[in-house]
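User: Can you recover a sequence for this backbone? Please restate the input before giving your answer.

Assistant: Of course. Working from this structure:
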């Protein structure tokens, strides 16, 4: 089945043909969330195939998904891999455009998906990611992080833009992103065995293959995390591990230090503008813990595995990967 999608640019109307748009949602115990997400997807102006990739949930996630006529793939919980599982589901999907959402990312309106795929009217576009707005219950820190990482203006990025965007050049987020199937096939889909960052890694591979990445600021979802300071430490420890294992990213696009400093300045200005002066010490604490966590993650191979498991946000990942390849550790 093919669909004609019209996109408007200036005084011209461009029509392109896609076989189908497929939306893939990895889930784990999403019973309280998946129904609302599927309702919002079914109400989109762009019809789509929906596949729920479930990691053997203990609740009613799968039965709820099936009640919405969503396709379901159930895998063993221990077999889930951020890149490998998304690749497997993507190869199963029918669409020429393969989109990914997380179970807690809710479309903000009925045109989110239509707007997300619009940049594919340019044949050079390999992937598009949408804007993540804070959830209604977002803390000031969670809300500002979304505003910092997802500005109101759209942009297009290619490899030559790394001088401008640095490490943010290949940035993508599979909480709300879409990929041209042929582009994913060209780069061998997502890398597997990654603690996180399969989306950004794919973005870098796409850029190096000559594709363009698009940020569609008008394709919006509500998605944020109210991490505690300790959780942010663990999150940034894992980011440090990711950068240590994928050192080619920093070699190609530069380090993350400048981005971190820019975030702290922006967050401080945000709190001051809102007269939230009492939160400034907490900002400094959180920023220090992030830096320490990131630096420890970068040298994870020097640390005992028992300590790593306590510092990581994904302790189960280490059970599968501690003895493999470039992540090999001495226990």
């Amino acid at each position: 089945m093919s669909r004609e999608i019209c996109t408007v640019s200036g005084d011209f109307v461009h029509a392109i043909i896609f076989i189908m748009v497929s939306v893939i949602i990895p889930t784990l115990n999403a019973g309280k969330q998946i129904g609302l997400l599927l309702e919002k997807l079914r109400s989109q102006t762009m019809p789509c195939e929906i596949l729920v990739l479930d990691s053997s949930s203990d609740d009613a996630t799968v039965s709820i998904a099936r009640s919405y006529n969503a396709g379901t793939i159930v895998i063993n919980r221990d077999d889930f891999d951020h890149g490998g599982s998304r690749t497997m589901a993507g190869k199963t999907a029918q669409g020429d455009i393969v989109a990914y959402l997380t179970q807690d990312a809710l479309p903000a309106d009925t045109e989110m998906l239509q707007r997300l795929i619009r940049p594919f009217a340019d044949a050079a576009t390999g992937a598009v990611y949408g804007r993540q707005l804070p959830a209604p219950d977002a803390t000031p820190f969670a809300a500002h992080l979304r505003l910092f990482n997802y500005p109101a203006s759209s942009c297009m990025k290619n490899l030559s833009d790394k001088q401008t965007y640095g490490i943010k050049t290949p940035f993508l987020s599979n909480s709300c992103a879409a990929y041209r199937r042929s582009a994913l096939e060209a780069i061998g889909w997502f890398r597997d065995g990654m603690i996180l960052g399969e989306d950004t890694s794919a973005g870098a591979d796409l850029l190096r293959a000559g594709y363009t990445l698009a940020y569609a600021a008008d394709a919006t979802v509500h998605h944020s995390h109210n991490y505690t300071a300790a959780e942010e430490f663990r999150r940034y420890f894992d980011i440090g591990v990711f950068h240590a294992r994928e050192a080619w990213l920093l070699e190609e696009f530069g380090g993350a230090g400048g981005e971190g400093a820019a975030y702290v300045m922006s967050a401080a200005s945000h709190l001051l503008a809102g007269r939230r002066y009492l939160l400034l010490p907490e900002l400094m604490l959180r920023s220090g813990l992030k830096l320490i966590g990131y630096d420890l993650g970068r040298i994870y191979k020097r640390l005992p595995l028992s300590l790593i498991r306590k510092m990581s946000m994904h302790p189960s990942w280490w059970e599968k990967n501690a003895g493999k390849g470039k992540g090999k550790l001495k226990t």
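That completes the design. The chain has two domains: 3-222, 229-320.
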